[in-house]
Amino acid sequence: QSALTQPPSASGSPGQSVTISCTGTHRNVGGYNYVSWYQQHPDKAPKLIIFEVIKRPSGVPDRFSGSKSGNTASLTVSGLQAEDEADYYCSSHAGGNNVVFGGGTKLTVL
Amino acid sequence: EVQLVQSGTEVRKPGESLKISCKVSGYDFSIYWIHWVRQMPGKGLEWVGNIYPADSKTGYNPSFQGQVTISADRSTSTAYLQWSSLEASDTAIYYCSRGDGNCGSCTPWYWGQGTLVSVSS
After folding, report:
1. Predicted confidence band at B103 (pLDDT cuts at 50, 70, 90)?
2. In a mutagenesis test of the B interface, which of A35, A39, A97, A98 is the best target, namely the one with the most B β-carbons within 10 Å?
């Protein structure tokens, strides 16, 4: 199964908003409302920040929001803070018991 | 508190076998999916496969099918990922993760700390 497509990098200044896209097909992103987003800081385990396209786990700031249109999901980080600098990965249900991840996006806070 | 504690760093030679573990606590092990995820050095996350401990039903990424085996031991609340013959390209950090949400087989949620597997002659 092919990985979902994410831009390799994104950036923004503190206080700004940045949106990261995640493009798949009707067999994954477009076919199910089971898109998740993960934040990974260097040498740390990934952390779930968005699940089921738009939902936030308890404790995740509402500066993080998710959306989906067709085969593309998006993560928006509003009011950028220095600690938001990390790698971000999307994932999606891909039928059966399968999961597929995106290639990851490195977010730089300028 | 949900916890997933993985076994420590492993250093092996090509052709050797290996079994790494993920011991969970804080919840009923049987009724939540466990996922395994690979991260090669400097690279992104790749879904390896998953298991539902209650009936040991498994799912594999086609890229890993036949290369690894996922299993679970309900008596010790531990999930395993094993190789019968390692290759240098298996060098990576391997994470276990508990699924949750409306589709536990779809959403890795809680993560272990990762196990570094290094394969070199």
Report:
1. confident
2. A97
